[in-house]
Amino acid sequence: MTNKTLTRFLVEQQREQNALPGQLRLLIEIVARACKAISHSVNKGALGGMLGDLGSENVQGEVQKKLDVIANEILLEANEWGGHLAAMASEEMEAIYPTPNRFPRGEYLLLFDPIDGSSNIDVDISVGTIFSVLKAPAGAESREIDANDFMQKGATQVAAGYAIYGPQTLLVLTVGTGVYEFALDRDMGSWRMTQANITIPKNYAEFAINMSNYRHWAPPVRRYVDECLAGKDGARGKNFNMRWTASMVADVHRILKRGGIFMYPWDARKPDMPGKLRLMYEANPMAFLIEQAGGAAFDGRTRIMDVDATALHQRVGVVLGDAEEVERVVAYHREHDAQTASA
Ligand code: AHM
Ligand code: MG
Fold it and tell me: Taking Cα atoms as reference points, which of 183, 154, 161, 188 lies closest to residue 27?
């Protein structure tokens, strides 16, 4: 544990690594401040009237929790005035939110899932906020920003991270120079670095997938999980452990700290949908972090950060974590495709 604050880390990144333009530094500080406010609301829970459904649905037809909307508002209000953003997009809003004309417009685009894992809010299991930062395309400053400006591959992200509201509130961040973790020091009101240059520990035999969907999975996913379940007696020759929190932030955080693989693959419940998770607000930022920590992130066949972005609320299959395990799942897809093509 170091004593370095987030502010000092960001100044050093700006000064020494040349990795951080001033506007991006401000953006990250403001997102971190917003996450502090969200953490406060999450902690209030029932005492602050924070729990429960709002009685409305979001753009994807999912029930909105009160906290989904509160956290969305906190992020919008915190970020609209700083002059660092051209626009924002959120899992909870149908359309993009351009910086209002009364404020200066900046170079960046901010995308977020205000509360990820929101089905867990009411049962006091960790939830989080996920964010991704893109640069607005060249020339966009002289015209209206629109949703097409967000249609960039994940590989163009300039920063990504999440806050996790668990036993501690943590902020995990990358600006493309490794992955850093900060803990919210409530006494000081500041973020303190708790781990630098996180790399995914190797050879931890743990997988995370919603097993109740087993019968709907594609054969390569079943093959991988069957082999994990067979343990020492099967093809892998070792025992595996399984965890599923239904909060992607919590599952990804565990993988960053302890290793293993996370999957939310395509399944036959909604065959026309590539997956459940959202490319822009969930898969891309997590893929950036996981790759920066030495892992890999694929949709089963394609590197997530190379998937073409075609819609704001696009879904994608997700297989991420330990690079060797992910490569195995990708190889099973490749073998399956080859067999199907030659049949
Ligand atoms: P949300 O953003 O609406 O909370 O949905 C995303 C969450 C992920 O955090 C998690 O991995 C997944 O949905 C859990 O889905 P399921 O309930 O199908 O297991
Ligand atoms: Mg989510």
Answer: 161
